[in-house]
Amino acid sequence: MSLVDETSRTPVTAADVEHAVRLSVTALRAGLAADWGVQAGTLEWDCWETVEHLSDDLFAYAVQLGPAQPPLDGEVPYLWEAKRPGGPRNAVHADRSAGPAGLLQTLEASGALLTAMVRTTSPEVRAYHGYGVSDPEGFGAMGIVETLLHTHDVAEGLGLAWTPPAGLCDRVLARLFRDVPDDPDRWRVLLWVSGRADLPGRARPEKWRWYGEPVG
């Protein structure tokens, strides 16, 4: 395992958030004609619910940075609720009549909100997250991790190809995970650290989390 060297770490940027969401939407558009009611990978949610949850994640990270005095002890109090028992608790719910194309439009819009907030918010700003009070870079990195992993889940359910850039994976690993394997396949490492894949010679984590606190 290797601890992150902050002096050599490449920061996560708003452009990275924008890029991750664009790649996700492009990949998922290949499945517009598929059945989005099928299970998303190993999750308990279906593909529609998972993208809806991802859109909600990006929205939630954006609005957490929004108030003049962002909260340090809780979330901005939107109403998060599930549409069914066991479903994701979201503030953002897509109109089902708009179909998968409309669902992806909500993903694009939420991604644009987070991109804008990461780009325009002072790096000195801090806001609450359950995994540690964080800064704009941290919220951007969290949004990217959610995007990469949940796109993987949905792509697995819909039978689509999905392999994000190694550099993007490496930047979010360095920002949010305190120590990670040196394996050169950075996407595989991100899947492993989130309990979604195996690495040779390493047990798959049963529990996982990231660390949102500012670094450096």
Molecular structure report:
- By secondary structure, the chain is mostly helical.
- The protein contains six helices and two strands, in the order βαααααβα.
- The chain has a two-stranded antiparallel ribbon with strand order 1-2.
- α1 (14-29) runs antiparallel to α3 (99-120), α2 runs parallel beside α3 and α3 runs antiparallel to α4 (136-158).
- The longest helix is centred in the C-terminal third of the chain and has 23 residues, at 136-158.
- The chain is globular.
- The two termini are 20 Å apart.
- The model has no long low-confidence stretch (mean pLDDT 95).
Let me know the number of strands: 2
Strand content: under 5%
| Sheet of most strands | 2 strands, antiparallel
Order of helices and strands: EHHHHHEH
Number of helices: 6
Strand arrangement in the largest pleated sheet = 1-2
Portion of residues within helices:
40-55%
Return residue spans where pLDDT drops below 50 for at least 5 consecutive residues: none
The gyration radius over C-alpha positions equals: 17 Å
| Backbone shape | globular
Quaternary = single chain
Classification by helices and strands: mainly alpha
Average pLDDT number: 95
Distance between the termini: 20 Å
